[in-house]
Structure to design on (113 residues):
């Protein structure tokens, strides 16, 4: 699976995400956090839309608060918790948000999102 991830050829990745590597990563986070059984029962269209929404939130937070990483994380948490709560419940939403923040930190450390 690791080689599939590195090559960005993970099975089950919806075409609706296209070449947007960030949205694809956020979709993968939702899939990982939900677990296989819940993921299979979830509305795939809603998950694709959620991944795109997460990407929009992160991009906006980074653009508006690029000088202060703590503000970026606070904006991401505040914006995503209500959205993800409805999709996966409080505990899973918090877990997904922490994963999104980790991805954002790595992106910022590499010099861009």
């Amino acid at each position: 699976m690791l080689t599939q991830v590195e090559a960005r050829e993970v099975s089950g990745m919806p075409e609706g995400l296209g070449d947007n590597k960030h949205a694809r990563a956020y979709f993968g986070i939702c899939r990982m956090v939900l677990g296989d059984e819940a993921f299979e029962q979830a509305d795939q269209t809603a998950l694709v839309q959620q991944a795109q929404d997460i990407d929009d939130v992160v991009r906006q937070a980074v653009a508006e608060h690029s000088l202060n990483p703590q503000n970026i994380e606070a904006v991401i948490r505040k914006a995503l918790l209500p959205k993800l709560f409805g999709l996966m419940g409080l505990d899973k939403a918090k877990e997904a948000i922490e994963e999104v923040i980790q991805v954002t930190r790595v992106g910022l450390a590499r010099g861009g999102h």
Summary: Helices lie at 2-6, 21-34, 36-41, 44-64, 69-88, 90-109. Confidence is low (pLDDT under 50) at residues 1-8.
